[in-house]
């Protein structure tokens, strides 16, 4: 086939399958990162581990080719690559693309980055014995796919990706260009109406979507409660819990072509009568008949709940069946905050009463125990929503927030009325590298176009409501990672005045230039998203705050950082508002902050917008053991700025996320990091009280987040006393 295979300079191993892990040195070298020597962190050991991994693992086990042409002949002949994609380009251009990437001399910066890439992302032979892809090859597959024959865009994307300014989410990065692949879409949101046909349809949809893509979020609030009548028969309804069990089994069965485990989350309104039994499914002592082990839980929380909490009032839980009968629309679409008093007074609506603070305590107890439920401040979400329609729920990680319309399913499991559900494909900017770009707007334009192509080519006929929603909105989710790394590199403490100033400025710029890109696409295609004319983009109201307020950096350090970029002025916003009014926007949604995981390591970035957990992070890898990852740019000068999230006042984290949220049209996967024993002086309300974490601590933090305009809280992670381990993170005298 025109390829040659070499074993490289260390030819002890015939293939990955026969690789003797007892003879390699890179794991031992990497492990020495966690062993202080002369009161110093041995960072050089990670560099040695990286070099050893390339020499002992990668080079001997990678197929080599005589030329780019030979490589593609082999990939096409053996059905590894999408031939239709390749045929959109000349081989001369592909060779030019390779020449450019090789000239940039990309090198992984840590052992973890290289290990994660080759373990999870690099294409291997069908038998798994050999790598047939390196980092440059995976970038080529991505840019050829996203550019769809546009050579200029392909080169621009190659520039963004080789310098790690842009990183597609795992499904996209993993699958792009492959002939046998799962979908590139990261996540989905479905809803179910109050009938058996809809329940059956959503279970089928969950199976199908989990098989081909990322996580699936399903809102169950429309379902009538346990004990409600069905066709006049009292106590006939089973409620939401049996549906949860059915969905959990569905997700457990389905996965993305064996590459990712199926995963899902179910959401319920805090005003649903089944709320307590819903929460009880995650308790450690829950009966096996109701317990859900792998399904995630989330709550949609209207403003009215916070008002009832403040007043220490009773709260009423309303029958979704009765609410729909009275209001003529599903429970999800009724504004509970506005209609609460009328619903309480309406005798046609069955209801039951609990104490609001009793429910609040149950939420906090469960978050202490399991990390769940996620919280969606649904009125905050809709108040900020620029698009016509109502947002009713979120996805598996709580950052996707888009409008939906309910479907009506008939007895044949087809649609009498086709509504809209949600799909979204994600990508992240690497903040440290992005701030080094020579043209911020050009970089964002390439990213938006890459994400838009995924939306355009996604045609999920297996779930028509998702397909219709995608066709109407062209929604994407451009986010960010590496924020704490940027702070440390630039000697800012996480959550201080300079950090908040930078966060505000960065996400304003990302918002502005993504709007410019979407406006340009709309202008080129003479097409906008569905019902653009009903949006606050069209009316101009969306732009008022940018035109009427001064958003420019305030601190000297941040002013200097942004001095090399064109920071949007009021005049720029006025011009953009006029252009949007005239030509529209192609993407109804553009931004979302996902919780970046393994892909952050490949980028040598800190995860998402979160603070680090440890200066040297410990990861448990299956069959391998512990692998250690030093924080990016860790050195003597940055050491003081890398404070662990578990030692940090979570109000500082909320403040950072709030600074970003005001510029992000969707949401952010905000995780709170708690200790079971809270360090003295960390929270003022703990003075004179127990040092142990209590439900009150979480109550206060959730309320603080709500007051700061946070749309969602993703997960609560608790560090327990027995998790302590000696290593460089506990050696206070350690230097670099």
Automatic annotation (TrEMBL):
Residues 342-369 form a coiled coil. GO terms for cellular component: ribonucleoside-diphosphate reductase complex. It catalyses: a 2'-deoxyribonucleoside 5'-diphosphate + [thioredoxin]-disulfide + H2O = a ribonucleoside 5'-diphosphate + [thioredoxin]-dithiol. Residues 573-595 form the Ribonucleotide reductase large subunit domain. Its EC number is 1.17.4.1. Keywords: Allosteric enzyme, ATP-binding, Coiled coil, Deoxyribonucleotide synthesis, Disulfide bond, Nucleotide-binding, Oxidoreductase. CDD domains: RNR_I (cd01679). It is an enzyme of class 1 (oxidoreductase). Pfam families: Ribonuc_red_lgC (PF02867), Ribonuc_red_lgN (PF00317), RNR_N (PF08343). The keyword Nucleotide-binding applies. One of its GO terms (biological process) is deoxyribonucleotide biosynthetic process. GO terms for molecular function: ATP binding; ribonucleoside-diphosphate reductase activity, thioredoxin disulfide as acceptor. It comes from the Bacteria. Provides the precursors necessary for DNA synthesis. Catalyzes the biosynthesis of deoxyribonucleotides from the corresponding ribonucleotides. Belongs to the ribonucleoside diphosphate reductase large chain family. This is Ribonucleoside-diphosphate reductase.
């Amino acid at each position: 086939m025109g390829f040659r295979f070499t074993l490289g300079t260390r030819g002890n191993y015939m293939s990955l399958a026969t690789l003797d892990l007892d003879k390699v040195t890179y794991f031992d070298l990497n492990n020495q990162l966690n062993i202080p020597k002369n009161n110093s962190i041995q960072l050089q050991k990670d560099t040695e581990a990286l070099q050893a991994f390339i020499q002992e693992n990668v080079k001997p086990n990678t197929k080599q080719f005589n030329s780019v042409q030979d490589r593609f002949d082999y990939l096409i002949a053996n059905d590894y690559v999408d031939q239709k994609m390749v045929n959109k380009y000349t081989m001369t251009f592909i060779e030019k693309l390779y020449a450019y990437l090789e000239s940039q001399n990309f090198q992984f910066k840590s052992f973890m980055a290289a290990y994660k890439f080759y373990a999870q992302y690099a294409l291997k032979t069908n038998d798994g014995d050999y790598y047939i892809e390196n980092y440059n090859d995976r970038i080529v597959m991505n840019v050829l796919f996203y550019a769809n024959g546009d050579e200029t865009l392909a080169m621009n994307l190659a520039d963004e990706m080789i310098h790690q300014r842009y990183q597609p989410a795992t499904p996209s990065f993993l699958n792009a260009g492959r002939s046998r692949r799962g979908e590139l879409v990261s996540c989905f949101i479905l809803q179910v109406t109050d009938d058996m046909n809809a329940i059956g349809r959503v279970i089928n949809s969950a199976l199908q979507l989990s098989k081909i893509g990322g996580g699936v979020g399903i809102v169950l609030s429309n379902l009538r409660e346990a004990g409600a009548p069905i066709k006049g028969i009292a106590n006939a309804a089973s409620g939401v819990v049996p549906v949860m069990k059915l969905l959990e089994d569905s997700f457990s069965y389905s996965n993305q072509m064996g590459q990712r485990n199926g995963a899902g989350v179910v959401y319920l309104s805090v005003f649903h009568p089944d709320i307590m039994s819903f929460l009880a499914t995650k308790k450690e002592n829950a009966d096996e008949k109701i317990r859900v082990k792998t399904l995630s839980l989330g709550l949609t929380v209207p403003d009215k709940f916070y008002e009832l909490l403040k007043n220490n009032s009773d709260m009423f839980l309303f029958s979704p069946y009765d609410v729909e009968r009275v209001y003529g629309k599903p429970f999800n679409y009724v504004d509970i905050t506005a209609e609460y008093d009328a619903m309480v007074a309406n005798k046609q609506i069955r209801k039951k009463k609990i104490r609001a603070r009793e429910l609040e305590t149950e939420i906090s107890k469960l978050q202490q125990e399991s990390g769940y439920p996620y919280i969606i401040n649904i009125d905050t979400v809709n108040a900020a929503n620029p698009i016509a329609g109502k947002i009713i729920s979120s996805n598996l990680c709580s950052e996707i927030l888009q409008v939906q319309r309910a479907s009506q399913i008939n007895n044949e499991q087809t649609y009498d009325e086709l509504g809209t559900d949600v799909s979204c494909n994600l990508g992240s900017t690497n903040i440290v590298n992005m701030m080094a770009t020579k043209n911020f707007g050009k970089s964002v334009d390439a990213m938006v176009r890459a994400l838009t192509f995924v939306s355009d080519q996604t045609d999920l006929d297996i779930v028509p409501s998702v397909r219709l929603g995608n066709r109407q909105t062209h929604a994407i989710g451009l986010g960010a990672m590496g924020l704490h790394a940027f702070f440390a590199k630039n000697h800012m403490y996480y959550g201080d005045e300079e950090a908040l100033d930078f966060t505000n400025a960065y996400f304003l710029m990302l918002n502005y230039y993504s709007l410019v890109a979407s406006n340009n696409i709309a202008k080129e295609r003479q097409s906008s998203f569905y019902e653009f004319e009903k949006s606050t983009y069209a009316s101009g109201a969306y732009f008022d705050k940018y035109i009427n307020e001064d958003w420019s950096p305030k601190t000297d350090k941040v002013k200097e950082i942004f001095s090399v970029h064109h920071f949007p002025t009021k005049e720029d916003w006025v011009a953009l508002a006029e252009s949007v009014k005239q030509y529209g926007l192609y993407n109804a949604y553009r931004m979302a902050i996902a919780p970046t995981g393994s892909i952050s390591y490949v980028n040598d970035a800190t995860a998402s917008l979160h603070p680090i957990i440890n200066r040297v992070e410990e990861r448990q890898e299956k069959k391998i053991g512990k692998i250690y990852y030093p924080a990016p740019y860790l050195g003597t000068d940055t050491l003081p700025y890398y404070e662990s999230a578990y030692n940090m006042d979570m109000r500082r984290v909320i403040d950072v996320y709030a600074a970003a949220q005001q510029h992000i049209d969707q949401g952010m996967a905000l995780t709170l990091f708690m200790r079971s024993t809270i360090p003295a002086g960390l929270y003022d309300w703990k003075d004179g009280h127990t040092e142990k974490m209590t439900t009150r601590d979480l109550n206060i933090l959730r309320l603080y987040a709500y007051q700061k305009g946070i749309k969602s809280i993703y997960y609560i992670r608790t560090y327990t006393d027995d998790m302590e381990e000696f290593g460089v993170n506990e050696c206070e005298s350690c230097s670099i």
